[in-house]
Write a structure and sequence with these properties.
- With 188 residues, this protein is α+β, with helices and mostly antiparallel strands.
- It folds into two domains: 125 residues, no CATH class; 38 residues, no CATH class.
- The protein is 38% helix and 20% strand.
- The protein contains six helices and eight strands; from the N terminus they run βαββββαβαββααα.
- The strands form three sheets. The chain has a four-stranded mixed β-sheet. Strands 4-5 form a two-stranded antiparallel ribbon. The protein has a two-stranded antiparallel sheet with strand order 7-8.
- The protein starts with a strand and ends with a helix.
Length: 188
């Protein structure tokens, strides 16, 4: 039995099994048993040499490594696989996937408890999840760790950076920091 279902917003006048005869791809949303979501795309055709054949879309679960690993370990039970948009061309499939990901703000949307709602880690391998902000306690521990660094470790880190060009912005910030330190020493 195929696990794909159509969203109530999507209507077709042919059996879902015949999707490859009518469309080049689709955009889907997967809901995990924990309630997290994933938006992705799948093409219904694949090229094998000069031949164009139907892809594995009927068995396909996701390109998301986290979802694939979880399904491999625990099975598909509890997952919902919903087709949210059917596309006539590959370029439309690509466009619609990115459009849905931006509309649903997959990189930033949070649940009431503060967890990320969407599993997506990027959009089109171009926009990525922003790094988590560190709490004051974490910043304090990081500062302490840096202060307790050995001379040997500092030398190794310096050697790793030696010879790498710095951007003008980076040079400006270094200069500004050195001026502030010099001013602070003069005040003491």
């Amino acid at each position: 039995m195929m696990h794909w279902k159509l969203s109530p917003d999507v209507t077709i006048d042919y059996p879902l099994d015949d999707l490859a005869l009518h469309a080049d791809g689709f955009v889907y949303c997967i809901k995990t048993p924990s309630g997290q979501l994933y938006i992705g795309k799948k093409w219904t055709h694949a090229k094998r040499g000069r031949d164009i054949i139907e892809s594995d879309w009927k068995r396909y679960v996701s390109s998301c490594q986290q979802i694939k690993a979880d399904i491999k370990a625990n099975g598909k039970e509890g997952y919902e696989f919903v087709i949210i948009c059917i596309c006539e061309t590959r370029s439309e499939t690509n466009y619609r996937e990115v459009q849905y990901q931006f509309v649903h703000d997959v990189l930033n949307t949070r649940t009431a408890s503060g967890e990320r709602l969407y599993i997506n880690g990027n959009i089109a391998s171009r926009w990525f999840v922003a790094p988590a902000h560190h709490s004051p306690e974490t910043r304090k521990r990081m500062s302490m760790a840096k202060r307790m660094m050995t001379t040997e470790t500092r030398k190794r880190m310096s050697a790793a950076k030696t010879g790498k060009p710095l951007s003008d912005e980076h040079k400006r910030r270094i200069s500004e920091t050195q001026r502030k330190r010099a001013a602070a020493k003069r005040e003491k």
